[in-house]
Amino acid sequence: MAGAASVATAFVGCVPDQTESVEAARSSIQNVSQSQASVPSCIVRPEQMEGPYFVDNVLKRSDIRLDPSDGSMTGGIPLRLAINVSRMNGSACEPLSGAVVDLWQCDAVGVYSDFEDFAGHFDTRGRKFLRGHQETDATGTAEFTTIYPGWYPGRAVHIHFKIRTDPDSEQGHEFTSQLYFDDELTAQVHTREPYASHGPPPEKNAADGIFRRGGDELMLDLAEDEDGYTATFGIGLEI
After folding, report:
1. Does the pLDDT at position 36 exceed 60?
2. Pairing assessment for the beta strands 158-164 and 229-237 based on DSSP bridges
């Protein structure tokens, strides 16, 4: 009987330890939940290089497919892109109105406008297709109509963007990065003209050295519409 009592005592002695462990676990979960709740819903994305093709041409427009130099429309599958810009304020995200968002990209066969290619593949100086900027509205949104991009050697398919709070002041905040596309969708798109005339893109995202520096956080989530694709990309700036 003494042995039984000892066993019973030992068993009862374990109960407080289990209770303390449960309470500690609950406290830990609560702390994690509170920490997650304090994270803003907008996300600070990684900056990436501007690249050689940026031209600060002060061309304010939403539909950047048109080339105002000759009135021609750039061919390709339409892409309607909304960029939502927020200012991070502690644990909250506030729409950032009045910010200037620049967008620039190559056309369906890998050509940028208003630029003389270093290797001599093209000279488009004076042309303005697939370039433009918009100011964010009261909701922090800038909307563009462009095309699904083509490709050029050494890079995965991408779009460049730049956000400036005050382009005319050295005190303004500037954020520059790039947007990327799903490899499988890109492969499908590039079987269609005018993309197909340029051949399939040789570089996938994982092989792109710039993409590997945070590109997985800069992926566009595209949805199909009546004649192309739509996407919305949100970004929070610490300013």
Report:
1. no
2. unpaired
